[in-house]
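FYI - complex with adenosine-5'-diphosphate, inputs then prediction.
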Amino acid sequence: MSDPQNPRAAALLEVEDLHVTFGRKHKTYAVNGVSFTVNAGETLALVGESGSGKSTTARAALHLETPDRGRVRLMGRDLAEVRTRELRSMRRHAQMVFQDPYSSLDPSMTIMRIVEEPLRVHTAMSRDERRERVVEVLGLCGVPAAHLHRFPGEFSGGQRQRIAIARAIATNPELVVADEAVSALDVSIRNQILNLFEDLQRKLGIAYLFITHDLGVVEQVAHRVAIMYLGRIVELGPTAEVFAEPRHPYTRALLDARPDLTRDVGGVRQTIQGDPPDPTDLVQGCAFAGRCPYAVDLCREVTPASIEIDGRESACHLDGRLVAEVPGAEPSGAEPSGAGR
Ligand SMILES: Nc1ncnc2c1ncn2[C@@H]1O[C@H](COP(=O)(O)OP(=O)(O)O)[C@@H](O)[C@H]1O
Ligand SMILES: [Mg+2]
């Protein structure tokens, strides 16, 4: 990578204090100060409920969406400082796979054309070289070369996702952003595609920003996990540690509400009370305070900063001191406080 003197050179993607809003008069605060890093060869999962800002974060991280504020570095380059043409060429290093392979693959194009497209855009390869590369990446993704001249409509959902992944890895990217890439697939097909992602990571060293709302998927593939709530990352850390000992009440609630019959939840299944606040309000204090059983006045007044301890981050005033140890922080049965609304 660019600078061997730079101790952070292993960071492939660095996102710092990213903000994205939509609309002018009626603003939606989709992404509200998000920071994270994806290191070379790792999988970072971005998890959260629908509308929490995962897709917008991913798009802004590749400057497919222009952030209002914040900084993105891809392979050490600040994307705000690279010119449009260079930004295009940076994209060969970071490709995307989307949820729905039915709509993301042009039905009028052959598999050859679909997978070849990024090579046409980003490389100076000859026609023969491109063809060779297309056959190679399809092979890596378990799609026989005999299918080259077929159309997406002739394939099942799982096969289409293999084709979409082949297209994404054609330019040999260091990073693939997968946005709900297995969410539309049946369980058995989903596992095959997750295995393919892992297999490609082992063989090619690809890093993934893996967006999903499925905690089972996170547990299966992610080295680290970032939990998003209402445009912010509330907790981030190694997956096994976060799942074993969540620090943020929202993470706890998510894990407890998980429909997983193999997990002993001690007979108490705590579900998340109330509705997520509307991202058209810029909430004062902690965005989760209105649904948090532990919230104290401070939570409704001051937005908690993300604190990092031993590679784990959490944005909670009560971090590590939940329940009994905090005066007045007993679970209240969670009446949504309505504070700040
Ligand atoms: N292009 C857009 N225009 C207006 N609002 C948008 C747009 N894209 C996303 N939003 C809003 O931003 C918020 C975050 O959306 P999104 O990033 O898609 O969340 P997620 O991927 O976690 O479901 C939502 O309130 C959504 O309605
Ligand atoms: Mg989304």
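Residues 318 and 326 are 7 Å apart (CA to CA). DSSP finds eleven helices and twelve strands in the chain.
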